[in-house]
Every structure is written in C-alpha cells, then in structure tokens.
Amino acid sequence: MEKLKKDLLALLQEDARFSYEKLAKMTSTTKEQVEDAVAALEADGIIVGYTTVLNSDLLEEEKVQALIEVRVTPQRNKGFDAIAEEVIKFDEVESVYLMSGGYDLTVVVNGKNLKEVAMFVSERLSTLDDVISTTTHFILKKYKLNGKLLEEKIDNRIVVNP
User: Residue 59: how many CB atoms within 10 A of its CB?
Assistant: First the structure.
C-alpha cells in the first residue's frame, strides 16, 4: 500500500472528522489526491465505515454490554465462518471475533438490561446447532475505547492496604 494511503488511514483513525483540506495539508498533498485515495480505500473495502466513540456512562439511557465467549463445532469445509455468519445476523451483536485459546468466538452484545442480554444468550445464541457452550462477561466500566480515554482522571482516591 502506498505511503499516502497508510498516512491517511492513521490520520482518519485518530479523527475521522478531519476535512480533506486538512488531510491534504497534513500529508503534503492536494485535496484531490486525498479524495481519490480515500475513495479507493472505501472501494477496496479497507475503510468500511466511520464511527463516533461515545462514553456511554455519561448518557442518560441505560445500556448493558457483554462479552460472550463461545465454543463451537466448526462445520466441515466451512470452518468457523459458517457459525460466525449466523451470529452476526443478530441485531444485538456488535462485534464477532475468531479467537485462539479455550473459546472459538468472542461476541460483543448490547442490551437494555442484564435480563435482555441473558435471554439473548440462553434463547438465541446458545441454541444455535453448532454452539457447544458460552461464558458471558458483563462489562461494568470502560476506561479506554478505540484508543480513546473515556475519563481524564481515572480515580484519585488513596489506595488503602489492610
């Protein structure tokens, strides 16, 4: 991949709101070159979307997120891709990763409350034919997300040792 595209990817990951004009200045190129490079990255499927990092703890709506480890039986001639394709179709699913280690897939799920996520796991995810077992971990607090600190100061309390 050419240097301009690599530089643009790094800059856009830092802040996707950079204008083409600013990106051109930052990369010592023209706006047109930046537009063409970004269009090519999108057409090639390298850039698949743009998103905003939210500190959900500061929003007034309640939301629960869980990380679910899933052990599956891979399908002949399809491996883990077939089961992953089933899992990604669920609206509750934010992300799916193929993992090494004791579990095969890690699934990140969003729900309105603990019960909703628990029902999703017990009634929909764990009932898929190739799912052997699941382990659910509820995310209690996020400190850093997509490279961004969610709080300037984590905790200034004095640590007390017994």
Answer: 9
